[in-house]
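Design review, sub-item: ligand-bound model
Attendees: FS, YL, KQ
YL presented the inputs for the pyridoxal-5'-phosphate complex:
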Amino acid sequence: MIYLDNNATTALDPLVRDEMLPWLGDENYGNPSAGYRFGKRAREAVETARAKVAELIGAEPEEITFTSGGTESNNTALEAARRIRPDRNEFMISAVEHSAIFEPCQFYESTGLVCRMNPVDSYGHLDLDFWEAALSDKTALASLIFANNETGVISPVTEAAEAAANAGAMFHTDAVQAVGKIPVSVNDAPIQMLSMSAHKLHGPKGVGALFVSRNSRFHPLLIGGGQEDGRRSGTENVAAIVGFGKAAELARADFHADSIGKLRDRFENGVLEKIEGVEVNGDRENRLPNTSNLYFTGVDGEGLLILLDEAGICCSPGSACSTGSVEPSRIIKAMGFSTERARSSVRFSLSKFTTESEIDEAVAQLEKAVSKLRVVMPKSGSRVVVNS
Ligand SMILES: Cc1ncc(COP(=O)(O)O)c(C=O)c1O
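KQ shared the predicted structure:
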């Protein structure tokens, strides 16, 4: 198998797994909230992990709240802003947010809140003038994705956060795809909240964190036993949190950005050279080093995914959440492209475990699959079902 879907999820790093194992056996199962030493051991492990996650983004440990992942962190940020700023009834987001921001905003709209969506251009760049003009004394929260999960395009977070601060609005960034891949620091901009997820940086699934600035007010989404300093009730998933801590420590030591970027460029240049009619979706410069989103003209994206799967190659039509649905990518369409382009685009995403020979094999298989599909694809561009 050649795994090129690392924006969907990553392999657990064996060093992360080793760190987690003692917390999954029968020796360390204490509740971190318990007062006896057996529980305190677990508490110490959680706090060590908190410090490591904080360090990765230049935060203080008390600014980190562990959650069940990026979706919960995003939902918590929106709900916190709604509760803290009842005097303001608008949210501001971009047109290229992940569904864990986009869908809750749709829900909030149905409750009477206004959600302003900011356009992006054909490179996936946010229109900063529009962003600034749309902010007002009605804006409770402005939320902007740090790096897009489908195209890898990096947002102007500093400028957007400063504009939000000038309007007196809170600012949140969904940094789930950026953290662990590129430097992210909460000190570079007036960021009140930032979402992270461990499984995007070779940590376990089902654990993430929400940074909440110590200067910011907060309101929890989950209310109960008051764990996580009252910010997220529910007994902590100790093994997963320990794994997240180790993954953060490893990422901080080395993002592998240069080597991954070189391999991504080898892949992309190989495809552009060998296959006609291919275009890159999104700004090629200002994007994550591991992501390549390609438009194959006249090729049905779903058919291509099927052929690549048969060749042992895992990649994605966009976000993992939309796999299996026939919906064309909302992100590619938000960049002003046609439904046809959105349906003919495929995302490839690499990791530190991707090798040169895998890349070369993937390019060769892609070449075969695309020419096969172009033979069976009717000129009209209508979609075909590929059974071979
Ligand atoms: C940008 C972005 N935000 C949020 C999420 C959701 O994270 P999780 O899978 O941890 O809930 C994802 C996952 O694909 C993502 O890419």
